[in-house]
Design brief:
The active site is at residue 172. The protein is an alpha/beta fold. The protein contains 16 helices and 15 strands. Strands 1, 2, 5, 6, 7, 8, 9, 10, 11, 14 and 15 form an 11-stranded mixed beta sheet that branches.
Length: 429
Amino acid sequence: MRQVVVTGLGLVTPLGIGVRRTWRRLLDGHCGIVSIKDRDPHFAGLPSQVAAIVPEGKKDDGMWNAKEWLNPGDERRMARFTQYAMVASQEALDDAGWLPETEEDLEATGVYIGSGIGSLDDIYDTTVAFENGGYRKVSPLFVPRLLINLAAGHVSMRFGFKGPNHAATTACTTGAHSIGDAARLIQFGDADVMVAGGAESCIHPLAIAGFARARSLATDWNDNPTEASRPFDRDRAGFVIGEGAGIVVLEELEHAKKRGAKIYAQVAGYGLSSDAYHMTAPREDGYGPFLAMKKALRHAGLKPSAVDYINAHATSTTLGDAAENRAIKDLLLGEDGKANAAEINISSTKGAIGHLLGAAGSVEAIFTVLGLHHNVLPLTLNLNNPGNPPENFNCNYVAHTAQQKEVKVALSNSFGFGGTNASLCFTKM
């Protein structure tokens, strides 16, 4: 099959707008989680009152102001998750230096951008408006704004890309699936270039209420938001909902080399699996994640011993982090693996940005690519005491401070409700 490489990156995250700003603040130990208690009266009555929100302010300060970032009319036509996808796509394309004009190049370029939930705000607000005022209170833009595939649709229309136009919606695995599936479209010759990733913006009282009723959210740190997301820590007790977008430009290797593109990494492997177990809870033995990682390495033609770093899905839930930790150790300490757990380098960047749901997999894949490109392991915030039980948490979790280390092979994991799992394997070229 054809080889696929990453040539462009774009980010909108709770740490700011843009790859450079987000990456710098991540490595410096900043946290984008804030209190939302005073954001709306409905938030004050919820058990979880913290969220990782894209900061609002001036564009020059790396913050979000729709009127500065978007074209006239975009804010009306596009839901917030689509707006984030558009801005991240523009950055990724600029970074890749790929803004084609010929019909041949436009037909060879596709878009694959998904979302886990889409525009919950539009659904809620329109439902209330319809209930109170009837048919005439429903906007003609209601359906186009809420459809998840409209992020990909708007990007393709903006830039004239006529290749595959696709969208995944696989809960919190969406971003990883989007990148992996897009890479396969290139491998099989359906496109030479793909703009791929995930976007999410559903910081809404109804969404938080739903996740809270499912007992998924952190509720004990409402007065200390920056400490709420604590992957792998023994005091972890739920995830923090977040928003943002992560978009990559994927390209067939020879196509990228021919035009002299900067290459960050190769998408060497992609593994998928299902827990086949429960709607929301993971299997305690982590067998689903184990299978996804095993398949990603098999696709890449690599042994477990070759893995230098894993960006974990680890959302800061008691069961999920333990299951993933077990899966990683079962894979990397098994046959053809590491000699001991201390050689396994794992971190979760959700301590800094919370859980971006459908955007998590793509944003964290970008962090993984940057770690590989710069030979640095991103840190895990709020990891004071690994464990529960502590004897099982004996890997290197890159607590508090980023670490310099040569990284040639890295995995990025994403798992979602419904038991869906994906693992992306990136390697240096």
